[in-house]
Amino acid sequence: MSQHIVVIGGVALGPKAACRFKRLEPGSKVTMIDQSALISYGGCGIPYYVSGEVSEARELSTTSFHMVRDVEFFKEVKGVDVRTLTRATRIDRENKQVHIQDVTSGVTSVLDYDKLVIATGATPRRLNLPGEDLAGVSSVCNPDDATRIREGISKGEVGKAVIIGAGFIGLEMAEAFADMWGVETSVVEITGQLMPRLVSPALAAMARKHMEENGVEFYFGESVKAIEGEDGRVTRVVTDKRTLEADAVIIAAGVVPISDLARDAGLAVHDRGGVFVDEFMRTSDPDIYAGGDCAIVKHLITGQPVFLPLGSMANRQGRVIGTNLAGGDARFDGVVGSFVVKLFETSLAGTGLSLEAALAAGFDAVSVLLVQLDRAHFYPTKELMTLEMIVEKTTRRVLGVQGFGSSGDAMVGRINAVAAILRHQPTVDDISNLEMAYAPPFASAMDVLNSLANLADNVLLGINRGVGPDGFAELWDQRDNGSCYFLDCREEADAGEYLARNPGQWHNIPQGKLRERLAEVPRDRPVVLVCNTGARSYEAQIILDEQGFGNVVNVQGGMAAIRKYGIDL
Q1: Average pLDDT over residues 264-293
Q2: Rhodanese domain spans which residues (predicted)?
């Protein structure tokens, strides 16, 4: 029987659900409404339009075959009726009606529905700061924002920019300003690191160092108190510690799900916003579906509700909803939380839980860090990749993997490999033996993921005991009191410059000669072992353990991690 489906929201999930349903039930009617004039655009591409990597804003709203996804496109190509500049004001569940209002004229009317889809998305979080409405202060929400920001830059109006927030959008916008336009860019973040809770302090410090080398300044642990201006335009940002000059300010403090309509209609909504849905993407009313940035879904590792606003997830959920509107049985079980963000020539990516998030969720977890080449050591275009794995101690279950590496596909490919199986609760042993495609131009014979799991195995067994670069930094800061013996296990040619810079504090015995020079190693204080990546120092640790040395620490990631972290030796 023919149905009338009403979709509230026309950016990502709404169009996907509408078009999927129409393919399955071409005889039914779909009406999609949106309060904006802009629909079906790729919001995640906005920073790349601002940077100039995407040449025209129009490209954010086109298909892969260059058709603009506008009202006419949906009507003629997809068979979906679209009403832009139309706001949904109330959902009447009893009579199955949506009350709407024309944004331009104010005229109100009613749409009857058989099934309803709520795809209202999310809105940038406002900080309610003095000066937040000054010209030059923007959020990054839609192509209009992007066009306004880029026009200001291209006209030469922006020499200094301040980004508030060091999450996905904040970092992407910082790169856009600094890299493509040469704008003096600062990022203010209230927490102590970039990408808080998503990556460890060690990986965050590596990413920060790389961005600072590309001209971005960071101010962590600072709270913005006011945005000030002259003649109605922004000129500076005031934090609790300093004042930063600014011709442009980007507020990138996260987003808030738009769920007022759902709450007012009596649907189950999270205390902090967001519509609860089941695995079929149904709300607490079986005739109403919701998804995308306005929905709360299940985290497949913690089992808890989670808000994860990603365009990729909205599209997948949209297909599920479209299928189920047509009587299907498609499921969206939940998320493991996968991400990647490009940072100049590098990227930061992850899936599952960071150590901080795992501990907060009640897991008895440990993390291990590995630096290894992303392909065969003899292949000329190899690069070092840094990966961190979070493991539950008692069960050996892998809870997450995060990484810092090049902006190519190598690292995100490893993250995606873990993401694909994380919902099935893989153990360290599963990742140790995970089958990866191998050829020297693409991987090493023992892939970096396999090696990472092997490191975790050795740590859980207690035969590789160590610290990451952040732990090494704490030990190195105490070097003047002589509490630790720092032993470089590399060849003398590699260790020489550090011996010269740190006489009496940095020591060198190549791992291959350690057995014959054991007498040089003190037994009355901790020995901190260092090599290039942590492999030879691990072998040295085995030797010293065998010889009865009681307190030996291996630096995971070795000198490669120390350099990336930014420790000055």
Answers
A1: 97
A2: 480-567
